[in-house]
Amino acid sequence: MDNVKVVAQGLRRWFSELALLVLLAGTLWGQAAGGAVSQDQTSQDQAPAGEGARATQETTVSPKEAKELFRSVDEILQFASQDTGLPIKHTVKRRLTKRDEVQSYIKKSMKEDKDAKRLERSSAVLKKFGLLPRNFDLPNFLVAMLREQVAGYYDVKTKTVNLLNWLDAEQQKPVLAHELTHALQDQSFGIEKWMKGSAEDADNKKNDPSPGDIENDEESAARQAVVEGQAMVVLLDYSLAPQGKTMLDSPQIVEALEQGMLVGGADSPAFRDAPIFLKEELTFPYRYGLDFTAALLQAGGKELAYAGAFKDPPKTTREIMEPETYLVHETLAPIKIIDMAKDFKGYDAFDIGAMGEFDVYVLVEQYAGRDEAGAMYPEWRGGYYFAGKPKADKSAPIGLLYVSRWSSAAKAAEFAAVYAKSLAERYQKRQGLGTDGKVAADAPPVDSWRTLRGRHAWLTEEGVVVIEVRGDAVLISESLDEETMKLVEADFWPQEKPLNKAASGQP
Questions:
Q1: Which of 116, 122, 179, 476 could form a disulfide with 402 if both were Cys (CB 3.0 to 4.6 A apart)?
Q2: Are residues 168 and 31 in the same domain?
């Protein structure tokens, strides 16, 4: 939905290139955490230190401290190599970086990023899904994050690890373990090229959305989780080494760290107060990537967990969230992709992307809570969306189509009911339509069902919303014209006669 991306996938992809993410690092032993780890300008890291820490007291690293910090790079690189089994092919260049240099670097990346247009599109579609408030200013949120979270980073273009001149060496060493894991990944597999995956001619890819974005969105998110998850394991192993422990035998530390990522701290009010979607989206590759790497370590040791994951990478967020599906090489039947050019001939494509398992988790969490999201996401079996602007009326609301498939008809009906419930939060006006297409005065509230079957429609201030459930598939449209909906239904269910009435079936 890149990310994410939902629509989350377009956004996730954009964030992966700009590298803004709050993670907790530090002692990991019950003390207040400080620092952070995130991604570099192309696909990986920038690691933050809070603006709150800067406000209390900020000193410049002395020449002696800088020498010690530079010396520690080689020692930590050796630790990361032993921990991952990835060889050291050459030394890693290093430099001491000032805070304003890092800020300028990231801001320049934001301005020059070729997918900035995708960010704008994704923001609009996320608001349509209700995952961002209608008045949420995503660009300003990013600027606020930059002000709070300034990062040291491994630059894949210059092959240099950039160290911070305002934090002492001991504070930076766990972050270095994370960053130098990326250096090892880069030396063996070439992170920048590897992150592009199967995307054809990725360097010259146009910003215009296409059905090809559906597969690439999930692939990008899964690969990002591999890269960041491995680095998080090394960060934890390095931090726990003085205690004679590792990440695998310290599950309570892992759980505390992952929970802390979602909460945010006093030094990061922008992240702490961010919508659920952004918190989940930004921390996904670190939290779930860590668990994915841990599962591979337990199943096959270092070779499988590190080099093996690069040689045979996961392709979907389902494989990341449920590592057993990766380990058994699960293959899901592909969901039918409609002929978007034909069906949406009256629309200019605004955004197209995957709605993967992680996106479903966040969507359900938003409207039904974390427990229900945790129970529902494993039942996902495929999904994608199309968002477009009517060619005849550029001022009209975004038209949205969302198709998903589930493990059973029962689970499809449960998801449809959750989605119907979301309408109560997303639209001020939502009048149920009867089988004659007219407003039904006795229509039940949208949040009154536990399951939803058949075809149901509501009139909102942005047009008609239709939720149609047939077997294990759910087809949802918002603000699309009737002719387009008929084309879509006939395309997606070609063996069945389209249901042209506004509502039919029973909840």
A1: 476
A2: yes
Distance CA 128, CA 137 (A): 14
Residue 223 lies in a domain: yes
Could you tell me if 467 and 489 are in contact, meaning their C-beta atoms sit under 8 angstroms apart? no
Tell whether 404 and 307 lie within a shared domain: no
CA atoms of 214 and 218, how far apart (whole Å):
7
Q: Which residue has the tokens 């209700």?
A: 130
Please check the confidence at residue 22 and state whether its pLDDT lies above 60: no
Q: 296 and 363 in one domain?
A: no
Cβ count within 10 A of residue 14: 27
* 109 and 238 co-located in one domain: yes
In a domain, 98, yes or no: yes
With 0-12 / 13-18 / 19 or more C-beta atoms within 10 angstroms meaning exposed / middle / buried, residue 337 is: middle
Q: How are strands ordered across the β-sheet holding 473-478?
A: 347-354, 380-390, 399-406, 473-478, 463-470, 454-460, 430-432
321 domain residue, yes or no = no
How many domains does one find in the chain?
2
- Give yes or no: residues 387 and 488 share one domain: yes
**Residue 456 DSSP SS3:** strand
Q: Which of 350, 349, 348, 357 is nearest to 323 (CA)?
A: 357
Contacts of 113 (CB under 8 A, 6+ apart): 14, 17, 18, 119
Q: Which domain holds residue 148?
A: 8-198+212-311
What is the number of helices (H) and of strands (E) in the chain?
Answer: 20, 11
What one-character-per-residue DSSP string does 389-409 give?
EETT-TTSPPEEEEEEEESSH
Q: Which comes out higher in pLDDT, residue 231 or 55?
A: 231
Distance CA 285, CA 314 (A): 13
Q: Are residues 301 and 408 in the same domain?
A: no
Q: Where are the alpha helices (DSSP H) in 113-137?
A: 116-129
Three-class SS state of 209: coil
What is the Rg, in whole angstroms, of the alpha carbon atoms belonging to the chain? 24
| Prediction pTM value | 0.86
Encoding tokens for residue 30? 């019950």
Give the chain's end-to-end CA distance (angstroms, integer). 28
Q: Range with the lowest mean pLDDT among 146-150, 171-175, 220-224?
A: 146-150
In a domain, 116, yes or no: yes
Model confidence over 371-387: pLDDT tens digits?
999 999 999 999 999 99
- Residues sharing a CB contact under 8 Å with residue 367, sequence separation 6 or more, in sequence order: 130, 418, 419, 421, 422, 425
Please answer whether residues 413 and 384 qualify as being in contact, where contact means their C-beta atoms are separated by less than 8 angstroms: no
The secondary element (H helix, E strand) that includes residue 420 is helix 409-426
